[in-house]
């Protein structure tokens, strides 16, 4: 199974390279030295240890968010609250280490635990609404993302804001709470090891435990799961709780590993990157690691050509949008739940359209 998923990942990656080339080559041909642009995009991220470190730094939250999404997708839940959970988890972690008096050694673990629990509510609430009232988790999770954003901005502005700073940012995170750096000259931190370990544990959970097996059965065939007598509502809610905890924990790790203050004034976008990584990896936790690294490599390469050449930032955004389009279109073609959803709407539209057509037809 993993061999098939890996082959699919490689094919999708090759398709993405082709799409990037179609966009990037015409832009490079308009510049005085097009080969330098292509060289900077392809090899630039590996010429400087700092830029290579940027790939790993950016891949760290993408791995954990991708894992959170994969666990929920495997259970058939299209919950997109990962972005809000990531944001709220980071804020709750920073608030804990700033407000709660803790010894230095306990700041990071306690802060991450509190952040994970608080932030996971963004995924748990849509899960409960789905289990209790059959409310669409897609709609409710998207809406809760923005509720989390504005709640977070309110808390930062009125409770955590440093008046000595020139912007709406929190007080500085205590040094004892920050995660140690692992590689000199880069910002690679302990959270990278945690993210890789989380993906490996996620693979064990999904493919080697009873809980993961139940989630996959529910995601693949809810009717068969009901025939087996599985508690479908609890299984789907459990998957969203686990996903929310992982995504919120990723936000806390990102804060304690990279930032000195809580400074997000909009949703950071790591949750959406996690969605793309999960789709690219075919919801396989192990393949999420190379998928996140590949997406981060594209991001770093695009940033380098935007900074060093006269390439508009919109072109880099266009490349990222096409990557997202290719990956998600591939997911739609293979995701049975999405296909059932689309086909159900299509069938309903056909059924409602047939009588009207009959009415228009002459007798």
From TrEMBL:
Bilayer topology: Multi-pass membrane protein
Record's subcellular location: Cell membrane
InterPro entries: ABC_transp_permease
Coiled-coil features, chain-numbered ranges: none
Transmembrane spans: 54-73, 85-104, 110-129, 141-160, 188-208, 271-295, 315-333
UniProt-listed Pfam families: BPD_transp_2
Keyword terms: Cell membrane, Membrane, Sugar transport, Transmembrane, Transmembrane helix, Transport
Protein's UniProt keywords contain Transport: yes
Protein known as: Simple sugar transport system permease protein
Organism in which the protein naturally occurs: Kaistia geumhonensis
